[in-house]
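Field reference: "sequence" (input) and "structure" (output). Example, 1,3-beta-glucanosyltransferase:
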Amino acid sequence: MVGSTKAPTTCTPLGYSGLLWAPASCHQDKKTRRYSFRPRGCHHRRCCLQDDPADARQTRSLPAISVSGNAFWADGERFYIRGIDYQPGGAAANEDPLIDTEVCSRDIERFRRLGVNAVRVYSLDNNENHDECMDLLADAGIYLMADVNSPDYSINREEPHPSYNADYLQSVFATVEMFAQYDNTMLFFSGNEVVDNENNTDSAPYVKATTRDIKNYLRARGLRQVPVGYSAADVASNRKQTADYFNCGSDDARSDFFAFNDYSWCNTDFLTAGWDQKVQNFTDYGLPIFLSEFGCITNGERTFGEIESLMHSNMTSVYSGGMMYEYSMEDNDYGIVDIESNGEIEERDEFQNLADAFSRWPAPSGSGSPAHSTTHSVSCPTQNSLWEVDGDEIPTMPEEAEQYMQNGAGEGPGLRGPGSQNAPDSGTSTGGIASGAPSPTGSEAPRRSSDNGGSEDSNNDSVARGLVIEKGHSHDVYPGRNRVRGAS
């Protein structure tokens, strides 16, 4: 329910009996002039009591997505991801498209025409209200995949230890608390391509610690257990080690799913792209797997034939679909629409190609024969020259962040905050993944043993080392801040 355009006389946060807030505490959307409950310092999606309840707009309710075995489920039905990555302006703009109702309503109408059921947003402002746009997404039957990081609040692969601190987690938790309230928040990404070569695998424990901390925060705060996982670079030399690392150890720290950004299908076919081998490699993985980005642009106009394979029985026993990269045309030329300076949209030919592909190859009926009825862990990867992490190594939560588990994260810093990567050390220590300890605190975490890599301009660097990164584009991952396209 979204508030009336008429200012309410009293705001009552649903679920918090006995608490009343003055009308001034209610939020009024600047464009729609509608009111919704938003007390100062709180960004929960609650309802205002209406002077005229008939003014309130009812929105479609989507069933919350859950994980069982190696598949996603909605109301007992297998859920196949047929989505699009959505970050108008790219990482450089660092803008949240879901806080501007005019922008999101413009684009959601096109998402309807494409036939997508999920969008991924890389930068979300945890200091703004998202009720209107999240309701519009729900009305369209669309779920949100939410990245919890932003350019200034993320794990820095070059210096992971100092960037994993209390300021960082406060921002992460504020985002989590804000979006866990929406039933159409499908999942949280704890990181995106933080590990992108064999010389920065020692950043993986900090991403895994963030995954653990988010899961524990959801439990501690009594929030919905939204699935939490990692979006990986498709690095051939350590693809399997990365996947296994995020699926090994105790349930407290394991991911709920694993996704990777795969640009190996370049207007080709299932075998030529090597997808048959990837399916085989992950057959016994035990967690849901999907492509968080796909859509190679190196072989002419895209016709998105990979959607046929993603929806085919060749893959559905292991994969749960994927996200096409990306909606808006940015500097790296992956978009299917142009957004003019006046906000008008011009659709490219690939827009219709994608709509046709989704229409031609619908989601299969039935369960698609997922490989496992129950989720299981795998063995941690062995430490070697391509994987620097000891199998059970993970930092404990910064001591100064412990307060958030009990008191909540409070108001988030937003996308214009001072940033966390250079915040003071807030105390962490090393603990074993297998211990299952719920986000303990301590004083010292493992630091990088050598300064032997981690350059963000890693494509040229990787070629010099003979590393194969299987993707069709230059990435601007948040950690390090030096690339062109973005996520954390």
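Residues 59 and 139 are 6 Å apart (CA to CA).
Residues 204-220 form the longest helix (17 residues).
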